[in-house]
Amino acid sequence: MGRLFLSGVGEGFSVVVSTIISGADIPELVLESVMQIFPDFQSKLPEKATFPSSSNEIIACDRVPLDTFLLKLHNQRILDTALDCMSLNLDTSGTVFHISRQAALAGKVAFAIDDKEPLGGVITIEIGGEGLEDWLEAATWHEGRDYIPRKVRDDLSMDASGEPTAWH
Could you give the CA distance from residue 126 to residue 75 in angstroms, rounded to a whole number? Predict the structure, then answer.
């Protein structure tokens, strides 16, 4: 079976990408970090806050294609981790997960899986729609799954803290 090239758009799913720009952030750098992973992201930037500021503004875009994001997962060879992280909060309506903005600025994907926000903030990805579990498995498929099959929430998944449940 060859790799499917999925994007999430036009496949029956809603995709929303967002991030919070705090008063200490440089809005242009925040946007650059998001666009490294989601080049079709479009949002108006808030004015740069003057110091000190406690403002928090959300920038968001819907119908964002996930093709570049998925390609980076494949290139970084983190598909099993991606399957686990992307499905940690999966329910019947969809899933939500976070990636590091600092890693994104370098063109890399690093999942933020605990309640502590990593240095530099996070990008939030929300995907909704019917059949999402199957789509996540297909989007993160790799040839190794022919030998060690993986499913959402299987015995090989990591737990909510990111620790492996079976691999030691």
Answer: 22
